[in-house]
Design goal:
72 residues, 79% helix
Length: 72
């Protein structure tokens, strides 16, 4: 596999969007617990919270890379 700029952009975007998702999850934790109950508390399920944030990061990175590929 040849590492073109698309792959570098995707790898960087995965890291950035995963961190943004984790920050957002932490900021919204109290509201999520109030709305969805104790199962929404990310402190009790750190593995699930990380996997969810990683999946969101990959999804957003794929979209951002696709948009950048169409533009450039």
């Amino acid at each position: 596999m040849n590492w073109t700029w698309h792959w570098w952009l995707f790898a960087l975007a995965v890291v950035v969007f995963t961190l943004m998702s984790q920050f957002h999850r932490g900021a919204m934790n109290d509201r999520n617990i109030a709305r969805y109950g104790e199962r929404a508390d990310y402190h009790k399920d750190l593995g699930g919270a990380f996997v969810g944030s990683l999946l969101v990061g990959v999804l957003y990175a794929a979209i951002a890379t696709a948009v950048a590929g169409f533009i450039f």
